[in-house]
């Protein structure tokens, strides 16, 4: 079914083509009113326009030798099918305005008959090659514009392929099995593939920006691989415990599968939070990304079990299959040992120091966010070696830095002459051009003295709107790409607090229902905000301050795209909730069985930190691969999300969260009784079904003579352990008796009657161990050995 769906959607999408549309609708903004007036007065501005720029080292661009090389090239470009017109600086009086004052730089405007994303790349490449053929010593020719930028983009799918290859390496190192490595890759390919093909079909019926598929594949690859990783890890654990493949798959889906469903739901909720901003541009992003996440979850919970059944025990490495064959069907369960257990024990021993160091590290990384400036990037931020960046710089050199982002003052009434005089007299205005009126609308082109990304240009827009236009008594509005970018940044900044409160509130509610606790979701909310601040601090340092941009090959520094905070916060909060769910669900499971918070946090961290870190490393590789996408916004989002995931997994979930939970103690799981009765019940990850056991182990405490369990607590070298906490619990997790071992390691706990119990032993210096004991009519001798480098979790 999945193969049929992928192939069918692929054929349909290929036949239908794409219809992506970037709809920047900003109702009730000045730039939107200016755009509406221009659309009525000048409706024939459909095709996109690009620019051919040339510069001479000596003489003038009007020299015959220069014209003899440039004019034939422009004529050939004008005759190409798909090119509507070419405005040459050598044609008519108006063309003279396309030559710089010193005569060394000129430009021609190439207007296509289609939008940039619809123009065939072959046509654009022909334009580029024809223009560059005019080069010679002393004559430099460069090209800029949206269509030209598409030609320099890497091949489609390069970022996805590199991300999948990096993920495959990490998965193979984690699993040690080629087949186990293929499973998450297959799930991600099917989930992302069906999601992108469906999005492509939906682009014909709704407005979806061309950035949406790239972001959808970015998030889809990350969550698809991670969700499959969690389920496969649980399945392999079941196989190593001696379960047959079918039963192990059932257990994995009923435990980690539940957590995957919940985690995928939280990601979709966070993505849907973008809708509260009211920005139509983001609606298509929500559709594409949410659809891809949903299909990735479906692939992880339906396709993956089928593949697990197909592969059977081959998801284990050869060494693991050999060990399992030697032990037989009663293989011992995996234990969290080695570095993970030692780290978990270290966090428990020094929670204050761990929490302080982690919090300081995150705070330092978050400091640059205080300098965050929202705006829009353009081709001036491209790499210095690209032709688009060179053309941008040549235009700025010849016609002023504001030439690349002119303002449009659109007047529909009042004294236009007084308005023109007022604009010309305004500080920060380099040149003013008035176009002939059409339909009662006058268009005044204003070239600022500063670049489109300069804060002084933003202040000029405010001056024109607040002072110059009212003083002239005109009914006018300021538009243009630069003004639209400024309005977009303002609207986004105004609506960002509501958006953050919405997704934090929804996430808090989901975690409250899942874990029956007020403190756990509150802690998660604080951690998510801290992760967001630190990740945006990294973005500001890299893309706004320029630290490491040359190393990454990502061009020149500039403001952060205004829409990125909303998109990144949605993705970040969703992914952070994933790790919180997988970490805390294991802690909650242990807490439900033992009612020992220290043990629950220690065991949960020890058993999940390795898989969370592996999942985070995979996501970091996938996200960083999008630096190769050729799209500046996707590259920025990739770097930001990679930093966010790395900080979240390696600092917050591995250090700060467990340290804080150790400090809070049993308060982590506090919930008022009345609220507990009101909340619906949702089992995120129920305990695994115990293996069938002999009848006595299934017994419950019965009426009978009281008895005791006694013995010694020793290290693996036979030394007595003094001061160990020994607790006897019922099968339901209710503490019955608790004592401290003596100097010789001896202990004795009272038993209410015959039956099955859980004996938990904890020592700060030597680790912990829990085991099931069955008490009959008399005292039971039970010695306990603590190794100090493992966390042995037992479930009733």
UniProtKB/TrEMBL annotation:
Keywords: Cell membrane, Membrane, Transmembrane, Transmembrane helix. The chain crosses the membrane at residues 214-232, 259-279, 285-311, 355-376, 496-515, 527-547, 559-577, 611-630, 650-671. It is found in: Cell membrane. It comes from the Bacteria. The keyword Membrane applies. The keyword Magnesium does not apply. Signal peptide: none annotated. Residues 25-352, 450-674 form the Membrane transport protein MMPL domain. It is a multi-pass membrane protein. Belongs to the resistance-nodulation-cell division (RND) (TC 2.A.6) family. MmpL subfamily. This is MMPL family transporter. It comes from Streptomyces hintoniae.
């Amino acid at each position: 079914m999945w193969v049929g769906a992928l192939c069918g959607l692929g054929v349909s999408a290929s036949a239908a083509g794409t219809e992506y549309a970037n709809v920047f609708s900003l109702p009730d903004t000045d730039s939107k009113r200016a755009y509406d007036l221009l659309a009525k007065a000048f409706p024939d501005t459909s095709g996109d326009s690009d620019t051919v720029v040339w510069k001479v080292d000596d003489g003038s661009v009007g020299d015959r030798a220069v014209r003899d090389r440039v004019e034939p090239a422009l004529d050939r470009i004008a005759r190409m099918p798909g090119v509507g017109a070419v405005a040459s600086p050598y044609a008519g009086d108006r063309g003279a305005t396309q030559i710089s004052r010193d005569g060394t730089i000129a430009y021609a405007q190439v207007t296509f008959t289609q939008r940039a994303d619809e123009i065939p790349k072959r046509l654009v490449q022909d334009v580029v090659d024809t223009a560059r053929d005019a080069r010679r010593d002393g004559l430099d020719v460069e090209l800029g514009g949206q269509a030209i930028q598409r030609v320099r983009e890497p091949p489609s799918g390069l970022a996805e392929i590199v991300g999948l290859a990096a993920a495959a390496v990490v998965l193979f190192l984690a699993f040690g099995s080629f087949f186990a490595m293929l499973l998450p890759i297959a799930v991600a390919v099917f989930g992302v593939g069906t999601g992108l093909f469906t999005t492509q079909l939906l682009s014909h019926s709704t407005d979806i920006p061309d950035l949406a598929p790239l972001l959808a594949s970015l998030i889809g690859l990350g969550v698809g691989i991670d969700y499959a990783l969690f389920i496969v890890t649980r399945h392999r654990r079941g196989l190593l415990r001696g379960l047959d493949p079918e039963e192990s798959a059932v257990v994995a889906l009923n435990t980690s599968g539940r957590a995957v469903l919940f985690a995928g739901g939280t990601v979709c909720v966070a993505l849907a939070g973008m809708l509260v901003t009211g920005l139509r541009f983001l609606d298509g992003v929500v559709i594409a990304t949410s659809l891809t996440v949903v299909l990735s979850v479906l692939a992880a919970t339906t396709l993956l079990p089928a593949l697990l059944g197909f592969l059977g025990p081959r998801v284990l490495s050869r060494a693991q299959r050999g060990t399992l064959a030697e032990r037989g069907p009663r293989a011992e369960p995996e234990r969290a040992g080695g570095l993970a257990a030692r780290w978990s024990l270290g966090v428990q021993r020094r929670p204050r120091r761990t929490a302080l160091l982690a919090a300081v590290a995150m705070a330092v990384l978050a400091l640059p966010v205080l300098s965050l400036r929202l705006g829009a990037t353009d081709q001036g931020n491209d790499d210095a070696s690209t032709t688009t960046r060179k053309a941008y710089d040549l235009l700025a050199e010849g016609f002023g830095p504001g030439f690349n982002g002119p303002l449009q003052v659109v007047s529909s009434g009042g004294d236009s002459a007084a308005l023109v005089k007022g604009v010309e007299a305004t500080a920060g205005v380099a040149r003013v051009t008035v176009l002939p009126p059409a339909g009662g609308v006058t268009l005044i082109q204003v070239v600022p003295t500063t670049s489109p990304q300069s804060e002084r240009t933003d202040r000029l827009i405010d001056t024109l709107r607040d002072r110059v236009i009212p003083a002239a008594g005109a009914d006018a509005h300021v538009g243009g790409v630069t003004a639209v970018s400024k309005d977009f940044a303002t609207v986004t900044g105004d609506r960002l607090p509501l958006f953050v409160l919405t997704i934090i509130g929804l996430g808090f509610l989901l975690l409250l229902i899942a874990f029956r606790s007020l403190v756990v979701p509150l802690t998660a909310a604080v951690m998510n905000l801290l992760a967001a601040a630190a990740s945006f601090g990294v973005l500001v340092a890299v893309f706004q301050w320029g630290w490491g941009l040359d190393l990454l090959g990502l061009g020149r520094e500039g403001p952060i795209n205004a829409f990125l905070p909303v998109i990144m916060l949605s993705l970040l909060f969703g992914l952070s909730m994933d790790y919180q769910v997988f970490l805390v669900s294991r802690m909650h499971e242990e807490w439900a069985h033992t009612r020992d918070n220290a043990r629950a946090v220690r065991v949960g961290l020890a058993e999940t930190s390795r898989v969370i870190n592996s999942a985070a490393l995979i996501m970091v590789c996938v996200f960083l691969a999008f630096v190769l996408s050729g799209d500046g916004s996707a590259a920025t989002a990739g770097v930001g999300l990679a930093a966010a995931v790395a900080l979240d997994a390696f600092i917050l979930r591995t250090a700060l969260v467990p340290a804080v939970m150790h400090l809070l103690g049993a308060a982590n799981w506090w919930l008022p009784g009345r609220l507990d009765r009101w909340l619906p019940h949702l089992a995120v990850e129920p305990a695994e079904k115990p293996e069938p056991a002999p009848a006595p182990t299934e017994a419950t405490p019965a009426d009978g003579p009281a008895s005791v369990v006694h013995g010694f607590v020793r290290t693996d070298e036979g030394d007595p352990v003094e001061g160990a906490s020994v607790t006897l619990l019922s099968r339901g997790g209710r503490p019955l008796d608790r004592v401290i071992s003596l100097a010789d390691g001896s202990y004795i706990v009272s038993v209410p009657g015959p039956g099955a119990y859980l004996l938990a032993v904890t020592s700060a210096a030597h680790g912990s161990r829990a085991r099931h004991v069955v008490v009959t009519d008399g005292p039971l001798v039970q010695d306990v050995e603590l190794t100090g480098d493992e966390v042995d979790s037992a479930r009733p």
